[in-house]
Amino acid sequence: MALEHSQSNDYYYEENEMNGTHDYSQYEVICIKEEVRDFAKVFLPVFFTIAFVIGLAGNSVVVAIYAFYKKQKTKTDVYILNLAVADLLLLFTLPFWAVNAVHGWVLGKIMCKVTSALYTVNFVSGMQFLACISIDRYLAVTKAMSHSGVGRPCRLICCCVWMAAILLSIPQLVFYTVNHNARCVPVFPYYLGTSMKASIQMLEICIGFAVPFLIMGVCYSITARMLIKTPNIKKSQPLRVLLAVVIVFIVTQLPYNIVKFCQAIDIIYSLITNCDMSKRMDVAIQVTESVALSHSCLNPILYVFMGASFKHYIMKVAKKYGAWRRQRQNTEEIPFDSEEPTEPTSTFSI
Length: 350
Description:
Blueprint (H helix, E strand, L loop, with lengths): L1 H7 L12 E3 L10 H36 L5 H29 L4 H39 L7 H15 L1 H6 E3 L5 E6 L3 H37 L6 H34 L5 H19 L1 H11 L2 H22 L21
Antiparallel strand pairs: 1-3, 2-3
GO cellular component, one term: external side of plasma membrane
GO biological process, one term: cell chemotaxis
Subcellular location: Cell membrane
C-alpha cells in the first residue's frame, strides 16, 4: 500500500549496500521524516474512519438490495454488485492501515501480506468494474439504436476482472513484510529493487487507471453524443449522471496517479535529491491516495442511488420494514409477572 510505504520512504541510500535486500524504509537514516509520520498519525485515521463509515453504509445497502431483493438483474446490476463487494472489501482493510499509521504494524508478517494484497485486488478490480459498467451502458444505447448483440457473457467478464486483480496483487504477497521499524512495507531483492518497484508502479497505473479511464472516456463520450442526437427522450438527467461519473473519476483518481507516476520516474532516475522535496512527495502520496479511496464511498451514489429503479427497491424495502414495525407494535403482549388478564399493550414490559 503506497500510503504506508510513503510514510517511511526516503530517496537517500548507500549505493554499496550489498545485504541481499533493498528495504526502501531504511533511507530515513539520512533524511528524517518525523513530521511526515506525525501528519499521517492524524490525517490517515480520521480520513479512513470517515471513509469506512460512509462507504460501509452505502455499499452494504447496495449489496443487500441487489443480492436479496432485486431478482431480475441486468449486466449492469451484476457489475454494480461486484463493484460494491470490491469497495466493501477495500474498506475493511482501512482500519488496519489506520492503526498502522499510529502504532505501526502489529498483526505479523502474514497479515501484512494478505492485507496489502486485498487492498490491491479490490482497488484494481473496482476500477475495472467501472470500465465494465461504461461498456455495458454504451452497448445498451447502441443496441437500442442499431439492435446489435449483447456481447461476452457477464460472468466470464467478472471472473476475468477478479483474476487480473489477483494476479496484480502477487507482488504484495511476495515482497511485503514487516521491517525493523514495525512497518508493513515492500522489501525487494537488491538486484531487483529499482526496476521491480518501478515496473509494479507503472503496471498499477496502467491497469488501475489508464485503461479504465480510456474505456470510460470513449464509451461515455459516444453514449452522450447518441443521447443528444436521440429525439423524444429526456436527456438532461442521463447526461448529468454521465458527466458526474467522469468528473468524479478524474478528480479522485488523476492526482493520485500523477503523483504515483512521478514517484516511479524518480525511482528510475533518482530525480529527488532534496529531503524537503522527498517529504512533500510522501505527504502528496498520502493525501492523493486517500482522495482516490473516497471513490469507494461515492460509487453507490453515482451508480445506484441516482437510478429510479434502485429508488423503487429502496422504497419497497422501507415500506416492508415499516409495515413489519407497525405489526410488532400492535401485537398484544402479556406481562410475565401476572396470570391475570390484561389490557392489550403496544410495548413490551416485564
